[in-house]
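Sharing a chain and its predicted structure for anyone who wants a worked example. Both blocks are below, sequence first, tokens second.
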Amino acid sequence: MRRLLIIIFSCFLHLIYSQNCGCSKKPELKNLISCRPTIFKNKAKIFWEYNCNSSWITFQKGKYQHKIYSLDKATMEFSTRLGYINWTEYKNSFLIENSMASGCCDPHEYILYSKETGVKIANLGTAIFKNDSDKDPYVLTMSGNDEVLFTNLNDNKSCRIKIPQKKIENTLKNSDKFYAEELFENFQLKKGILSMQLKYKDSRNSKWKKEAIILNTAKSCN
């Protein structure tokens, strides 16, 4: 009798925690949406699920799970190409790459989540640069029209760098660049000192100029 109860309980748990991954009416979705989970170092998991009505991403740690993103019936065929398309694990968090348009070439957005709870920590803004080194992983994003946000992906601390908005507006108006995110280059982080360059133009016929941007992340980031 005891063995039978264990079997029944095991089947019950399997039904609760088994993935939804299929739609008989749309077999082509199997080639578009992989339900294989990503297992983090703390045993938490993140994975796609779908049925005939929607697709969604589930975060699970132990018996706790919740949905962190979904697409409805009309847009679910864009899964993995629109919205949450990729994620990367870090020490205490995971970073979501959010595509705000299916196709080329708008900058993707970065969203930071807790690896313990699956709760959103922050919307970081649109992607400028991501460094995935084991020692000093960080991401630079455009936050608003005149700020660059530096986020340390080991401790999730951030700090803002003010950029002259007029300089960015003039450059986009007087060049072939469409996005402010394209104006930054030559990124380096050494001993807590971040350096990069802003390239800009004063007029349509002027040559490109470069301005160095320096940030002491140890002193400036909360």
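Comments welcome. Residues 4-17 have pLDDT under 50 and may be disordered.
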